[in-house]
Amino acid sequence: MTKLLLETLKGNPGDRVPFWFMRQAGRYLPEYLEVRATTNSFMEFCYSPDKAAEVTLQPIRRYGMDGAILFADILVAPDGLGQKVWFEKGHGPKLEPVNDEASYAKLSMGAFHDRVGNVYETVRRLKAELPAEVTLLGFAGAPWTVATYMIAGQGSKDHAAARQLGYGNPELFGKIMDMLVDATSEYLIAQIDAGADAVQIFDSWSAAIPETMFERWVIEPTKEIVSRIRAKHAETPIIGFPRLAGAALPTFVDAVGIDCVGLDTGVPLDWAAREIQPKVCVQGNMDPHLVVSGGDLMVSEANRILEQLRGGAHIFNLGHGFVPETPPENVALLSDTIKAFRR
Ligand code: CP3
């Protein structure tokens, strides 16, 4: 049984455009909320292989996506390094900040795989349970995006704490980034060992970074992770997603050596088709908020995306994840629209 999404990632697109959606498992689905309600702590939920595998499979059963993304979170990596991570209702993630030598000294790779090992177990269960034609996607956050949370101790606007540490104490910042390169490479390699067919690296906050720092904070660490994965698993496709990188996107694609790049909602598609798609597969870029209103505009926009990217390898996805208020029936209509299209 061939996996259409995996083949497309390898640069062999078929007649139909494969699809999956960021945050396809999540709060917009009543069956997710039901399982989620059985565990108070979100991190504990991520470390429960039965529950994490179940919520990964829920959207596949409903909508028949070509890809299933492992259910976990990008903040599993700092938790594995020994940083305290927790989620507060209505506040998002909280972490004990790592912003000086003393807090950095508490982190290490020593217990990493033991701490996050249940995520690998989730991958093994998914590998066994998923239909043969569905591609299993592992993922991690990119060092820059994960560092913005680690340093600020929470989500932040403009990522002031990480930027200021990066400029003001490049030595400490560099040590944090190096540790994240080690952790992320090993974490993704272990997910592939456990059965992931491909992996995505989320750099959600790579917007508005000066180009010298974009090179140092976004391109170099991601490139190093890609090269370490390739050394062990040369055949496994890697998707990069430097969200909101704008005109730096082609530079990122050329430098990092990924197989596919995620396009956020603002990327003009004629430009992407011309400048990026000849080099790598592209994925994206539907506005998740358009799936909240749905209807004819959602269908015509989906068809426009499919048309504009029909000339090369394309995986239909969103420009960012589904929001909780997304009506599940709109996801059904969007899925049917994508399935009906032929290149
Ligand atoms: O379906 C999937 O996409 C797979 C699972 C997944 C989650 N988070 C589950 C989740 C993935 C791939 C992520 C990635 C992630 N996590 C990113 C990168 C992608 C992006 O959205 O930019 C980031 C920045 C995070 C960090 C994070 N996790 C935040 C800021 C929050 C709180 C905000 C929110 O939406 O609640 C989370 C929590 C989280 N991660 C939830 C889910 C389903 C909601 C928590 C809950 O169910 O109580």
Decide which structural class fits the backbone: alpha/beta
What's the oligomerization state?
A: single chain
Task: Determine the CATH topology.
Answer: TIM Barrel
Report the end-to-end length measured between terminal Cα atoms: 21 Å
Subcellular location: Cytoplasm
Domain Uroporphyrinogen decarboxylase (URO-D): 137-153
Pfam family, one: URO-D
GO molecular function, one term: uroporphyrinogen decarboxylase activity
Overall description:
- By secondary structure, this protein is of the alpha/beta class.
- It has one domain (4-340): TIM Barrel, CATH 3.20.20.210.
- 50% of the residues lie in helices and 13% in strands.
- It has 16 helices and 9 strands.
- It has helices at 4-9, 30-36, 42-46, 49-63, 76-80, 101-105, 112-129, 143-152, 160-168, 170-194, 211-232, 249-256, 269-275, 290-293, 295-308, 328-340, and strands spanning 67-69, 85-88, 92-95, 135-141, 198-203, 238-242, 260-263, 281-286, 314-318.
- The strands form 2 sheets. It has a 7-stranded parallel β-sheet.
- Helix 8 (143-152) packs across helix 10 (170-194), helix 10 packs parallel to helix 11 and helix 15 packs parallel to helix 16 (328-340).
- It is globular.
- The mean pLDDT is 97.
- It is found in: Cytoplasm.
- Keywords: Cytoplasm, Decarboxylase, Lyase, Porphyrin biosynthesis.
- Catalyzes the decarboxylation of four acetate groups of uroporphyrinogen-III to yield coproporphyrinogen-III.
- Residues 137-153 form the Uroporphyrinogen decarboxylase (URO-D) domain.
- This is Uroporphyrinogen decarboxylase.
